[in-house]
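Hey, resending since the last one bounced:
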Amino acid sequence: MKRTSIAAAVWTALLVASVGAAPALAQSPTVSPAASPAASPAASPATSPAASPAASSEPVTAAVTTAQVTIPCDTLAATPQATAAVDVGVGSAVLVELCSNPTTGFRWSDPVSSDPSIAAVGGWAFVAPDAKQPGAAGVEQLTLVGVSVGHAVVTASYDQPWDGGQKGAWTLTLDISVRPAVPVAIDCAVFDSGKAAVATVDAPVGSVVVLSVCSNATTGFEWAQATTSDPAIAIPGAWIYQAPPQTDPPISGAPGVQVVTIAADSAGTAVIKAHYERSWEHKKHPARTLKLTITVQ
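The structure tokens again:
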């Protein structure tokens, strides 16, 4: 498989497949407005002749990236057979970042999905490290697209690709659960008349609520880790920041969005809360707050 960013034709085909498979679950949540504030170490396998991965140097991007899995060098050094699990909505993408050091001659093999009709490999690229230190590790980025509802397992192996090279120095086994998606969007206008947003939404058992909220990284503010009143009913993942679309001319300081995937696992009601704050200002009151009540049925 050639390593490249997602080709337009492939991405279009995947989105067409996902639209055809997705149930009609989208709904407009009830939102009450309330105001915006002023604006690694080198990998552990033995060194060998340098070999750069056959990969694009540009980062993999996706239209709708709602989840991320990151496995750093330290984790792989301690646990060479890495395992992870992630939930994603139909039509959304998962970005997987894996420690990789081409100066050792190793690279991640082309990933294999146990069922591409459920979870398809959408793109694969190497991102060089920021550090100028010789031999520093970078990351390989894998994009997986949720095509239809179901479970699939994606595997990859960290190998020296030439004949006789070491194989399986590290391995990845990723269990991906693709679920029906219920979108909830809270845009910047909600915060024009107050700093609190309150929303409600209904979601079927076994679905995911994909919550996107106005956010502006240029201000230093971000939505901190979301909490749940009942993790047995609904549990949020990590926030993913999506920069605003590029414009010509560029708009300085334009807001983007942060997206979090919330797994609706069992019937009942759970309240998801989050604070919009600067990481270095924990003792201050949050600039904005969010409260989402999810009724799972």
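Helices lie at 8-21, 73-78.

Sorry for the duplicate.
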